[in-house]
Amino acid sequence: MSFANPNLLMTLVLILPFVWFIGFPRYRFRRRRDIASLLIRTLIMVLMVLGLAGIQIVRQVDRLAVIFLVDASDSIGTELREDQLAYIQNAVQDKPIDDEWAIIVFGANASIDTPFSNIDDIGLNEGYIFN
Q1: pLDDT (tens digit per residue) in 49-96
Q2: What are the pLDDT digits (tens) for 59-70?
Q3: For residues 41 and 23, is the Cβ–Cβ distance under 8 A?
Q4: Residues 10, 16, 17, 23, Cα dihedral to 10°
Q5: Distance of CA 77 to the CA centre of its chain
């Protein structure tokens, strides 16, 4: 767990004693109800401060999502276009099984040629750059 603003956690030190002082049960006949109310107020204050402090659960992931950008403008010749395709084919074949990839073609306009996939074959008949 990490916090975007850990300094705000210090407000719990200031707020909780105040909440406990105000909500402490004073009458014997209402003690259960006052304790329940105090616990709920404490929980609400803790959750509010954690939310303001920006609590984050950070998990490490071994999967990658790679986006290949392919220049398909008129200034790129067929030899460079074939080099781009060969590079993408080699990268896709050598990737681990769980990694995903996609191709975005740009020239006059950018468009998604191949959406995210984890298949090892890029398919020579698909998309704009392969025609």
Answers
A1: 999 898 888 888 788 888 888 888 878 878 888 888 888 888 888 888
A2: 887 888 888 888
A3: yes
A4: 170
A5: 38
